[in-house]
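Cont'd.
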Amino acid sequence: MELTLHVWRQAGPDQPGRMEIIRATGISEDMSFLEMLDKVNDDLIRDGVEPIHFDHDCREGICGTCSLMINGIAHGPEEGTTTCQLHMRSFQDGDSIYIEPWRSRAFPVIKDLVVDRSAFDRIMQAGGYVSINVGAAPDANSIPVPKEDADLAFDAAACIGCGACVASCPNGSAMLFVSAKIGHLAHLPQGRVEHERRLRAMVAQMDKEGFGPCSNHFECEAVCPKEISARFIGEMNRDFIRC
Amino acid sequence: MAYQLDAKIPAGPIQEKWTNHRFNLKLVNPANKRKFKIIVVGSGLAGGAAAASLGELGYNVECFCYQDSPRRAHSIAAQGGINAAKNYPNDGDSIWRLFYDTVKGGDYRAREANVYRLAEVSNNIIDQCVAQGVPFAREYGGLLDNRSFGGAQVSRTFYARGQTGQQLLLGAYQSLSRQIARGTVKMFPRSEMLDLVLVDGHARGIIVRDLVTGEIRRHAADAVILATGGYGNVFYLSTNAMGCNVTAAYRAYRRGAGFANPCFTQIHPTCIPVSSDHQSKLTLMSESLRNDGRVWVPKKKGDKRPPNEIPEDERDYYLERRYPSFGNLVPRDVASRAAKERCDAGHGVGATGLAVYLDFSDAIQRLGRDVIEARYGNLFQMYEKITAEDPYQVPMRIYPAVHYTMGGLWVDYNLQSTIPGLFVGGEANFSDHGANRLGASALMQGLADGYFVLPYTLGDYLAREADMNVKVGTDHEAFAAAEREVRDKIERLMAVGGKEPVESFHKRLGRLMWDYCGMARNAEGLQKALAEIPKLREEFWAEVRVTGGPDGLNAELEKAGRVADFLEFAELMCRDALHREESCGGHFREEHQTEEGEAKRDDENFSYVAVWEFKGDGEEPELSKEPLTFEHVPLTTRSYK
């Protein structure tokens, strides 16, 4: 396959960026999207050009590091798929592909396609935990949890913190991320104790970080690689009004 | 001078060792804890858990990771589960049985006392994780569910769908986040440790590169914990994350920390096969799949028919045939070698002939698609994304791949390395898995080290070392010298000015290691590798091209530094593999096998931990030995028949 890539290049946080056209040649359809970029980078380096910087690590869809807007869609055209799990068989020979970083005021660009998502960590630090010290835990089976609750908690906990929800929201809202973290602990008895305090603290931090409000577009749910349901946003809003 | 290795195993019956030891460990007064600064490198299960626990205790902790967030450490990718001796299923499990299985599974190359402690604290881990809100799988009655795993005949594995590592890591990350908010832990993401700093022979700090700004920084402390994972990426292709590397451990080795059993690497039997040269990494399909999947190849050599057209009596379920009592659940090393043996004999399937089938059709028929989907849904989905084949319809194709490294920095019972004040946890140390790790034991060990061992033993060190009251600042000459070395290496890498990308050298090294130090090894191959690696290293330092500059984010520079270390470390691995004239666990020397092709151990001559000491560039490392004694698990030939 041969492709025409339109890639966002930006040398550093305070530098101006621009879209650059780069030819990708010798691409096979079995390559993952990132392996395609590896090949392009290999060619660039051999030509003495600095390669395209992008975030990636586990390359099996679980660490949440990879983060590309591909033809305007966070993580590209396949549903429920991270960028690293996207394969070139989803594209046609001769295609033009637009590759941009996550776009959000709360996620400033570091270089090329790499952004700073530390805002998510700070939201977690505001209250995204159960306040229990090591050694203080009762026997694991002393608190039965209905299977339905445990499953629901898991559905929320599956969030990989990639930020695709924010990147695709027209408001740059982090509601899907925050509600997934809240929902995970809210559906377990261990997490209920601090639920209201956690909710208030995490929402306050979310606002402080400059994420936008939610206006129910649900672009977030559509692009979430772990298919986290927007129901958790509804639950969070309901509980927020209550407290 | 060779190391004087003292494992510091406490006296007394094995069941009481840890309890007695905890009593004998010195304590640090609560008011004094905040005066001690501790550096934790790595934020996976071991590092994240240690940093959080030490923070809870009141120590002043600095935690470093190369990822953009501590939540992304590669522990996150563990799929299948975590072992514990809870015996909830009432099937005869006990601490003793978990201990026994782990020592036997490790092919008698682990230290008994450490393994017993691991089994002992395994139950506390499950309690701790449930209390944190880890959403483990549950039964309809609301209690925890278990599954079975390779190398055990009981169901002792707790799991959270196919994402157990992710959920456990998020638990540790949440605890860590709480401590960061309380100010006890300061987190440094996107920071890579490039050297260890010793003052008067004690670990007193590290040199890091800020990966965003390129700034080289000094950090001083009273003790350093390395929890930097394994070195599987020396093979280039592995199930490790792209960033996993040996640099922190290798730099510690160069500073005097003994490296134990570097040749013990685990090749995981169920991975998606390599499809072509462009491949950047291999994807594991959890071992838990072997609970319900049956492994087979066609009986006829080179049979190219689609799997569904091969009738039952023309299939060879070779694991069930060779190992009737454990069947598809034999340990990883055994399953991997059996797959290689079938493929080498010409029975392999798929385009390359380097794959076997993992077939779920029986299980789907017996249990229904819904049950299989609930158990393995995400794994099936992942398989389909990568291969474009539907495993509900056609059997998966799998092949062994590098997954885990049992070798690591040598530690005593306190998890302290040969350098006082340098502690090592998780995959980065060597202690608990011997020559082969059982499935679902890595998560157990990482969390055991982080939550339940290091917080105790580190305090003892700080309380005992009187000179800990003398604080060392980053203006000490040792810091300046280490920083100079780090800067010098970066400058040298940037100055080579060759034409070949870093990745290309990494691939070539990986190929060499896979061919000669992979699933099967022999003296001739290892000697060849030992001759080739220095040549490749020389070529690297003459031909590599590192684009960009030393400042700011530069992925090529990061990779170059790591590959440069792999190019040195690979030699140590081959040397260790060559010296160990026996087969045990994941280390299979072709010269040492039974007539049936099983690993042949030599307990008389090799029942020891091989600990290597760095002697300088161009010098041969010196071997020291920690003898292993087995008082509780009698040395027998491991049999899963």
